Structures
1.
Amino acid sequence: GENVEQHPSTLSVQEGDSAVIKCTYSDSASNYFPWYKQELGKRPQLIIDIRSNVGEKKDQRIAVTLNKTAKHFSLHITETQPEDSAVYFCAASSIGGRSQGNLIFGKGTKLSVKP
Amino acid sequence: NAGVTQTPKFRILKIGQSMTLQCAQDMNHNYMYWYRQDPGMGLKLIYYSVGAGITDKGEVPNGYNVSRSTTEDFPLRLELAAPSQTSVYFCASSDNLRTSRGTEAFFGQGTRLTVV
């Protein structure tokens, strides 16, 4: 089955700096890669996602890149703000075939943005 | 618009007791999921369902059972509670991921379960 590895587990940056979180996946059939943000004591919420037919996607200060050949994808947050502090999870899923619907998450990255 | 509703929010169980965690969604989503999140850890997939009458095991299914008799409901059953099942449980739903509009998985608010 799918296995998603996420690094780093913790990341501390100064306000205004950029933050990068990287994930790798094992199942070449995976073709949907979302990123979720979870604030303390709250439910995870989607912040951005990408499908395998796209190499990069951007939404304001957040961008995601995907390298299907290397089976890795990354989250980039620019101009970080204290409210970006949270745990970020990457995930992978196949939207076709036998394993469709099997949404597997990485272990998370705790991002701390220092004012 | 309620989204994904989980009950109860908190529960304390004694070892060996059983219980059902309820999950309901009102978005007509085909896909539903159950995850557990241990302190400081990621989300582990317990079971998932791609439609009514269809369920599949995830990464950590042992000790749990599910059913999907309707599109709206996806209850999770713990038969013989063990301390290792102490965790926060999240239910989620999404539209068919094949479609361009159906990508986001919406999560319930979680159930904090303690087994003593």
Note: The CA atoms of residues 28 and 69 of chain A lie 9 Å apart.
2.
Amino acid sequence: DVKVTQSSRYLVKRTGEKVFLECVQDMDHENMFWYRQDPGLGLRLIYFSYDVKMKEKGDIPEGYSVSREKKERFSLILESASTNQTSMYLCASSLSPGQNFQETQYFGPGTRLLVL
Amino acid sequence: AQSVTQLDSQVPVFEEAPVELRCNYSSSVSVYLFWYVQYPNQGLQLLLKYLSGSTLVKGINGFEAEFNKSQTSFHLRKPSVHISDTAEYFCAVIRTGGFKTIFGAGTRLFVKA
């Protein structure tokens, strides 16, 4: 079974702090994604990566950056946390050789971030 | 651009009753369609997907969905629900050759005894 793990289930940070969210997948997947989940809005794509050191912006990249130095690890960075970044953050991965993005995405359990 | 509309934000239903969760999408090009389920305090997992072929797709846990191209719909159905089906369900679409999956806002299914 594919396993996607996220470093924290719950996180409380203060406004202005730099926040790191880590995601690790164990199935050698090419693609990794960071989403933000808010009630009534579903999931919105922040960034995705289709290879090591490669990244593409999603729908809401402002205030976030990402890093993918190793294939299995994809980090989301909030450079200066703000209260409007309080949300549930979900990481996902998919096996998509040749960048076929219709493959099933496998999700981690999520990190619930509260910014005070 | 693609978009996904889940017509019901919440669906309460009694155990062993049938249920239909509605999903409509808009796209000017061909798409792939998905239903994901999120149980409390968990990430999403795939229920079923439509890529091509038969328009009736069967998934896990007794769920099925029918792709209707003329009505641009992909409704999810189950003939008899269990308490354990209580969860949030997300419809999603990605255009053929695209890289971004678009998710609907979700439908919360409450199954009551």
Note: Chain B has a mean pLDDT of 93.
3.
Amino acid sequence: DTAVSQTPKYLVTQMGNDKSIKCEQNLGHDTMYWYKQDSKKFLKIMFSYNNKELIINETVPNRFSPKSPDKAHLNLHINSLELGDSAVYFCASSQGGVVGYTFGSGTRLTVV
Amino acid sequence: GQQLNQSPQSMFIQEGEDVSMNCTSSSIFNTWLWYKQDPGEGPVLLIALYKAGELTSNGRLTAQFGITRKDSFLNISASIPSDVGIYFCAGQLDDYKLSFGAGTTVTVRA
């Protein structure tokens, strides 16, 4: 049973396209996150939702829009993709702000 | 969020060696965590530290929460080949955000 699952695992797309990454967790957690890992492996938070409410919104271009239809799902939609958006995107979940996020296995996005 | 200074950036291990890495911050944290990331996977939590001065072990791993609350270290004793990967420190205040270090890449010395 996968705790935090992301789809797709790999995504290759052309500049200017719009794409979505989906995330689902079956841990019963109430908080979900999107993190971006750049080519130097640095992990930076993008968004967080607690019970479907946006609670963290870091300095991220407006082209990135998260959506949480329920507390088990957090999707990330990206408009007008740019070369610099190429990275690995990780979804994670936790119960409240309690430490010990559980991460998904990542989506490697390559924009060509 | 704040960026943590993690060192060394990379290290080579020989099976059986003890290895050490550390993390410092200009700000205090209430919680320090250590994660490991294997290729193609997400980070997995190894150890969480909740109190200044706390020393916690998890098998061959030992981590400490610095007294100043601005640093932490992780030791791996008697390293084995499956210890290779990227180790991240992370700090948390009272909010939901984790601030990560840049990682220490551990590889096996040929």
Note: Chain B has a mean pLDDT of 93.
